[in-house]
Amino acid sequence: MKRRVVVTGMGAITPIGNDVETFWNSLKNGTVGIEPITIFDTADFKAKLAAQVKDFDPKKYMDNKAARRMERFSQFAVAAAKEALEDAGIDMAKEDPYRVGVSVGSGIGGLDAIERETKKMVEKGPNRINPLLVPLMISNMAAGNIGIQFGLKGKNINVVTACATGTHSIGEAFRSIQYGEADVMVAGGSEASITPIGIAGFAALTALSTSEDPKRASIPFDKERNGFVMGEGAGIVVLESLEHAQARGAKIYAEVGGYGATCDAYHITSPAEDGSGAAKAMEVAIADAGLTPEDVDYVNAHGTSTHHNDLFETKAIKLALGDHARRVKINSTKSMIGHLLGAAGGVEFIACVKSIEEGFVHVTAGLEMDDEECDLDYTKGQGVAMDVNCALSNSLGFGGHNATLLVRKFVEE
């Protein structure tokens, strides 16, 4: 028998708030966290805007020595995990540490460390490289540092599937609990790739918006969309088996009902043009939960603001949900926080849980000009108060990776 899995804690570091409450209130208010890049000089760059995390001090979450041994993506992950564990009320003194695991991924890892130390090597020679370069840069260190900081000795994995990383990480944590490998999993994604090579690389791919207006840069499903805006941050949740959560009297936010994962097997950057791969991920998640398309109230779309993604994801939602696609609310959290790459799925999953908890679907900010090919209800203009019993969260990554999580209102059976 598969065990039921519930959400008992959440933590977030985002461009519009460094905790879940601030992040969620900003989403409800339609706050856009995009601004001119300040981390480096963009004079020679095509893309000038990003969604940067603001006022982040790692020493609020860990001691100074630990912080110095982590790159920014690991610091974000540890900070969000701390909030999530405290929110869940997990007391490790009362837990078997080998039954508490971590599934936290990063799409790229310590890109800034690679860039910084490569420059040092070219200018000063190989003997000047930081001895900690490798543990600073490798993407599994977000998960590893969470385990170290909080004494979590169970299954510890790092799923890397580009922009689908956070969603796959939560999905694999869900499976680990379902099948008895762990009682508790800390899961999600973290990313910090607003660096010269990160921005230049995605711009060279023509993936980034070249708009210099923060309100017209990340505009998913808008006819004038022309690329995504790079974001950074972390979204981490605590998942538990229902029995474990109930035994310790935990507050239950929602239940993870299903998980679907597929591959387009089509192109290294473009989604399948008919949306079939993403549609199948949604179909699998719905079936995994024992539900039907008509049970879905809301879809948190991948919604990157690139021409191909938004068009093909619209086709995917229609394929997966059929006629019901026109009756669901759809939005894109990226309209306010940009694209957090490997962290996107973690942060967007939290948005889904909060939508269920508070009965509210946030606006797709910046959506003004309708696109006749994107003809579903993308929550244009303002957010909507409504009962959300069942939500889908989609993430689609370069390489053709598709992942969907189904989260629903918790009901005791």
From TrEMBL:
What EC numbers are recorded for this enzyme? 2.3.1.179
Q: Does the keyword Acetylation apply?
A: no
Mind naming one GO cellular-component term on file for this protein? cytosol
Domain of life, per the record? Bacteria
InterPro entries with a match to the protein in the record: 3-oxoacyl-ACP_synth-2, Beta-ketoacyl_synthase, Ketoacyl_synth_AS, Ketoacyl_synth_C, Ketoacyl_synth_N, PKS_Beta-ketoAc_synthase_dom, Thiolase-like
Segment forming the signal sequence: none
> Which residues of this protein are catalytic?
163 (for beta-ketoacyl synthase activity)
List, for all copies, the residue spans of the domain called Ketosynthase family 3 (KS3): 2-409
Provide this UniProt record's keywords sorted from A to Z: Acyltransferase, Fatty acid biosynthesis, Fatty acid metabolism, Lipid biosynthesis, Lipid metabolism, Transferase
* Entry's Gene Ontology molecular function annotations: 3-oxoacyl-[acyl-carrier-protein] synthase activity
Q: Which GO terms describe its biological process?
A: fatty acid biosynthetic process
UniProt pathway annotation: Lipid metabolism; fatty acid biosynthesis
Q: Which SMART domains match?
A: PKS_KS
Reactions it catalyzes: a fatty acyl-[ACP] + malonyl-[ACP] + H(+) = a 3-oxoacyl-[ACP] + holo-[ACP] + CO2; (9Z)-hexadecenoyl-[ACP] + malonyl-[ACP] + H(+) = 3-oxo-(11Z)-octadecenoyl-[ACP] + holo-[ACP] + CO2
One Pfam family, short name please?
Ketoacyl-synt_C
Q: Does the keyword Cell cycle apply?
A: no
> What family is reported?
Belongs to the thiolase-like superfamily. Beta-ketoacyl-ACP synthases family.
Q: What does this protein do?
A: Involved in the type II fatty acid elongation cycle. Catalyzes the elongation of a wide range of acyl-ACP by the addition of two carbons from malonyl-ACP to an acyl acceptor. Can efficiently catalyze the conversion of palmitoleoyl-ACP (cis-hexadec-9-enoyl-ACP) to cis-vaccenoyl-ACP (cis-octadec-11-enoyl-ACP), an essential step in the thermal regulation of fatty acid composition.
Q: Which NCBIfam families match?
A: fabF, PRK07314.1
Specify the protein name: 3-oxoacyl-[acyl-carrier-protein] synthase 2
Q: Which gene is the coding source of this polypeptide chain?
A: fabF
